[in-house]
Specification:
This protein is α+β, with helices and mostly antiparallel strands. Helix content is 52%, strand content 12%. The chain contains four helices and three strands. It has helices at residues 8-13, 15-25, 44-70, 82-88; strands at 4-7, 29-32, 38-41. Strands 1-2-3 form a three-stranded mixed sheet. A hairpin with a 5-residue loop joins strand 2 and strand 3 (38-41). It is elongated and about 55 Å long.
């Protein structure tokens, strides 16, 4: 599988063929706008598969954590309010969220 890398200007010029290549040839294209901003054009089918695999991994992780908790290998913490949880996680509390 070939993964071509293109700048955003060139990708715009070739968008139709790039989409066809992603959908029918299952060939991804990396599109760059800068060194820090990169995206990958893939087919919807491949995107759905990535989401499915992510969900499976998350389910396995939660299942393992529940099993570890039942075995006494993992402690849990209770929160009296959502704001307490958000604060503990370093997230904005209500009124601070945009």
């Amino acid at each position: 599988m070939t993964n071509e890398t293109l700048g955003i200007v060139e990708a715009r010029k070739r968008l139709g063929p790039l989409v066809a290549r992603a959908v029918h040839g299952h060939q991804p294209t990396t599109i760059t706008r800068s060194d820090e901003e990169r995206a990958v054009l893939i087919s919807e089918e491949e995107y759905e598969e990535l989401l499915r695999l992510r969900r499976e991994r998350e389910i396995e992780s939660v299942t393992a954590a529940i099993a570890a908790r039942k075995r006494g290998e993992l402690s849990t913490h209770s929160y009296s309010s959502p704001d307490e949880l958000y604060a503990d996680l370093g997230l904005p509390v209500s009124g601070e969220r945009s």
